[in-house]
Amino acid sequence: MRGLRLLVAGLLAASSLAHGAPPSHFGVVLGNGLLCRDQTTNRYYFDYLSQHFGPPYKREGGAYWFRTDEATLWGMPVLEVIVSDESFPYSFVGAVADTTPEELEKAIQRQDGLSYAKIDASRYPVRESKPGSRIVYFNTRSKIYCAKFKPLPPALR
To answer: Which residues contact 100 (CB under 8 A, 6 or more apart)?
Structure first.
C-alpha cells in the first residue's frame, strides 16, 4: 500500500511539473500564430496547449480557454490563451496579456518589427497588422488574436 501511495504521489508531482512553466518554444509557437505568421488551425493549438498547460479550464464564447501561468510573449505576461472551438465560423488563436494594447503594440514593434494601424476612431481603437492579427482592449488588459475564415466542408455547402 505504501508503494502505491508513493507511485501516485510521484505521478501527481510529474503531472504538475509537466504543466508548470511554459515550454521554451512557447514564444515562437504562440507568437507566430498570434501574429498570423503561421497556420491558424485550432486543433494544432488545442493539442499544443493541452500538452503543455493541461486541459482548458472553460469553454465559452466559441473558444476553449487555457490558463498560461508564468508565460510571456514579447516580454509581457500572458494570462490566458484562447482557441476557437468547432462552433465558431473562424479558426482563431488569441491571448490575454496583462498590459495595455498600447504597451503590447510597442513590445511587438520592438521585438518583431511588426506595425499595427488603428482601424477605427473609437475611444478604444482596434489595432491591425498587415498579416491580419489584431490587438483589442479587454477591460484593463489587451487581447491579441489571429482569426482566419474556416470554410464549410463541401458536403455542407
So the answer is: 137, 140, 141, 142
70 sits in which H/E element: strand 63-73
* Coil/strand/helix, residue 146: strand
CA–CA distance, 150 with 57 (Å, rounded to integer): 24
- Rounded to the nearest 10 degrees, how much is the dihedral formed by the CA atoms of 111, 115, 117, 123? 10
**pLDDT tens for residues 77-101?**
999 999 999 888 889 999 999 999 9
Residue with cell 494544432: 44
